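Bumping with the actual sequence this time:
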Amino acid sequence: MASMNLFSSASLSAILVLLSPRLASARDAFVFLGATGDNALRPSGVWQGVYEAYTAGEFNKVGGLDIHVAMNTPHTELELHQKVNATLTPLHEELTKTSGWSCKVENCSVHSFLSNVTTNIWKGRDADSQAKAMAPSLEGYERITVYLSIPPFVFGSWSDAAIKNWDNKGEYRVHIAAEKPFGNDIPSSKKLHRDILKPGLPDANLHLVDHWLSFFINRHLLELRALILPRLKTSSGNAASWDSNTFSRVVVTEYEERGLEGRGEFFDGVGQVRDMVQSHLLQVMALSLIDTATPHEKLNEAKLGLFNKTSVTNCSLGQYKGFLLEPKLKFHANFADSTDCGIQLSVDTEAWKGVPITIQTGKDMGATIYTVDFYEKDGPGVLTFELGREEVGLGGIRVTNWNITDDSEFVAPAPGFSQNKTLKAVPAVNNGTGFFLNYSMPGLYFPQAYSMMAAALLTRDYHVAFVTYPQCERSWQIVTASSEAECLDPAPGKVEVYEPPSTCGNTPPAVCNTGKTVEYLYNVTFACNPEHNKEWSNISLYQAKCHISGGPEDLAYLIV
């Protein structure tokens, strides 16, 4: 279809460039905001996820799906297509070489996929005017899903614009999906929630994105737990149960081999607890502990119930040496950004009362590890769920020093978009150690987490892949603990500086403690003096601390 340019009269402050206009040709519409951002274009990001779901035929499950991209000048349709083509072409090539993948639509080329995309480009940042201009092309859809991969401060204005211009007199056809972290703390998350719902969006139509919920093992965690449990016994020889009678402690681990490597600006003022614990790992903890008999439609209710019984008992925090050399960092006199944390939690339910729960996560740890470990009560055994098959290459259930009672063949869920697909497996456990179920072998096709999330969103399956706002708010309350200074924004003197394991000969992920804290780095390493003015002339944190007038707290720190 030929491009068409529409220009407003001179009295209007914005110019609309509407490219490739079309009327509804499918049942649902996906309106993508932030389509040229880093999260949209990165490997395993939104565009790759939506495309992979498209190749699997997921669009057809709802009677077809059209994609509408809303952008602002100076972006162009040509730029969008070039950038999307650059991120999707390598994925398409990889998929065609992947055992187990096959194209489920007539044409899986990137060109064919992009033919489903309508682009709307607006001069200025007026959400209401742009949404009004897009309304005719969105008129015929049964459901409109708005994906907010944009700065949170405009969530409310776009929610208002979408409801006002697209909701067809209260039919509630507009759904909104928002990227996490949702807010930076309790007050900001509440404000975002109010701003999005204020125009009249039902709370049930707000879906908070957590791609960790779409990792295969996490998505099937309750089912996989139910498979292993009957084949375990306690140290006293009794049948195992999923509670304090069988397990003495539980550890959720997310470690990353490398540091931020130039991306420190995006981590500044965030820290590891916000980045991973509040956003992802509390969800993994809940899936690891709730009753395996929880029905699909009651999953969110069960997770919230467990969160309501969860509290922090201790936080230990670290920052890797070299983080403060990252570009575009600001100086925060009263707190330090942790890049490593170990959070001790208490879950005061009948099943888990008295069992220590640990969430540990860090960057520059020398190894990438995504696991949940259950430690045998009064015994040497460890039951481990390998979570990150899609990113780490390891997935499955293994035991260490814990004999299983039955090594016969069984049926387990198989990877892929179908929820009913299964495979047959035989445990490979010798003398209590080995894999009960191993998904790490070649030949299995694991769709990316974002593709499973996109498929769930676009096929209206909201129970498993998304977080509800009450869960989000309660997660903020948990990590806030007694105050934000306990885990979220710790004092510099509370945050120990570490180096990767290789610097002292440790085995990953055992990092090397330097014996210093971030407070030492602030006061000594980056002390403001003529010598350091030369040494740290290109270091943004030093410049912010010593040469740029900041807020009152920064100035007070300099006076001291």
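The tokens above came from a reply further down the thread. The longest strand covers residues 310-320.
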